[in-house]
Amino acid sequence: MSRSKFLDMGALPHFWCEGCGNGIVLGAIVRALENAGADPEKTVVVTGIGCTGKLDDYVACHTVHGTHGRALPIATGIKAANPDLTVLAVLGDGDGATIGGNHLLHSARRNIGVTAVLINNFNYGMTGGQYSGTTPQGSRTATSVYGNPEPAMDLCRVAEAAGASYVARSTVYHGVQLQRFIEQGLSKDGFSFIEAVSTCPTYFGRLNQLPSPVDMLMSLKDRAVPRGSGGSGEAGTPGIEGKFEIGVFADKGLDGFSARYAEVQTAAVARAQARPVVAGQAQAKASGKGHWEIVLAGFGGQGLGLAGQLLGEAAVEIDGRYASQVQAYGSAARGGFAKSETIVSSDEIKYPGVTRPNLVVALSEEAYRRYAGRVGEGCLVIVDSAVVADAVPGVQAYPISEMAERAGQPQSANLVALGLLAAISGAVSPQALEESIRRRLPGNRGALDAFRSGFGLAEGPAC
Ligand code: SF4
């Protein structure tokens, strides 16, 4: 068998125990990638944590070594942002089906174009052989020394029921078949799930009367029956007793997420292009400030997230600029520290987190303490004069909450702040923001009044 260009020979020898099935799965993966015509420059292998997580060390393409159980969300993000890439996630049973079981369900439901290969060796190998969601009932592990009382999950049936486009199971005894299933999975548009039933002689085999790699392989050979064959009628989940099925469980040929996402994206772009671009973009360019990183900070319940979203929507949908918005709350949610970060830019935004704010609006004393005097040069900090008596030099105080009360909208300090920052920054045009408020809060005249009063505040001196 020829060597695949996807195998990084320089990284060998591998770290797995003698007789571990992971090496067979690695061989099947690299050959499948090669046979499927994948380009190493356009292929990403994503792993989680555990013995299987080491697999990314041995492949010659782009890799991401993620956190425990999180390979699929990472792979989803990569595929959603770069639909042209080949994205393959390698999971363990403790990693991808137990800690990360929720992600498996939703990757299948979403039917994103990722190929997931889950190596099921019935236990958490790397951490000492604890039982996982696929440990066969009655078998022994480091944490089920009297026999696991729980039934094992049938991962293929779960993935199929959740909506995966392609689902198949093979074993490390059936390496050629396993490779063929991975190749088929790579050719599908939607989510492909391939379970590779594997061996962990070091922990699982030793505790279950299968001490040698050969014993474990022969057990897989004896128990696996082809789907639809005479013996498959009584087959159950993979394990050390009874039969289990190998073969293709689902091949639905469904449209994947990428195709559906592309439709939504095309419609959104067409809608945005159909709208006239108003003043914001030209204004920002004229002022030489094409990139704004804006923080609205205060406490939960002040509507900071809404204000940030209004800002972002106005920038994207009306001014025709790029924007991102994220928000964070403390564990207390309402009443605790909260912030909304919005980036508005003339250029594509690669990372949505604010790293160098140009403008911070603090609506609580805690927010003021967190930012005043702690931001980089060139960042303007604005504070509500009601929350701090003497602002430090360089911080501008405005009667934000007082204006909201005067407008008869005491809960609208967020919109007053929005008007103020729009006037001061020019990041987004006031027309776009007013339109954005009208759409989000139809018929709420007070909201527009609050926004306009904030805009007018910028014409007077700070306190
Ligand atoms: S502990 Fe088990 S799964 Fe991990 S490398 Fe050794 S045999 Fe493989």
How would you describe this structure to a colleague?
Residues 278-288 have low confidence and may be disordered. The protein has two domains: 9-251, 3-Layer(aba) Sandwich (Rossmann fold), CATH 3.40.50; 277-457, Pyruvate-ferredoxin oxidoreductase, PFOR, domain III (Pyruvate-ferredoxin Oxidoreductase, domain 3). The protein is an alpha/beta fold and 463 residues long. An eight-stranded mixed β-sheet has the order 2-1-3-4-8-7-10-9, with helices on both faces. The chain is elongated. The N and C termini lie far apart (78 Å). It has helices at 22-35, 71-81, 93-99, 101-110, 155-162, 175-186, 201-207, 213-223, 257-274, 279-286, 304-318, 365-371, 400-406, 413-425, 430-440, 445-457, and strands spanning 43-47, 62-65, 86-92, 115-120, 123-124, 130-131, 166-171, 192-197, 224-226, 244-251, 291-299, 322-329, 337-345, 359-362, 380-384, 395-398. Bound molecules: iron/sulfur cluster (SF4).
What structural category characterises the helix and strand content? alpha/beta
Q: Report the sheet with the most strands, covering strand number, pairing sense and barrel closure.
A: 8 strands, mixed
Number of DSSP helices? Answer: 16
Number of domains: 2
Mean model confidence by pLDDT: 90
The termini sit apart by: 78 Å
In the CATH hierarchy, the third-tier topology of the largest domain is known as Rossmann fold
Tally of DSSP β-strands? 16
Question: Which CATH architecture of the largest domain?
Answer: 3-Layer(aba) Sandwich
Strand order of the largest sheet: 2-1-3-4-8-7-10-9
Assembly annotation: single chain
Report the CATH superfamily of the largest domain: Thiamin diphosphate (ThDP)-binding fold, Pyr/PP domains
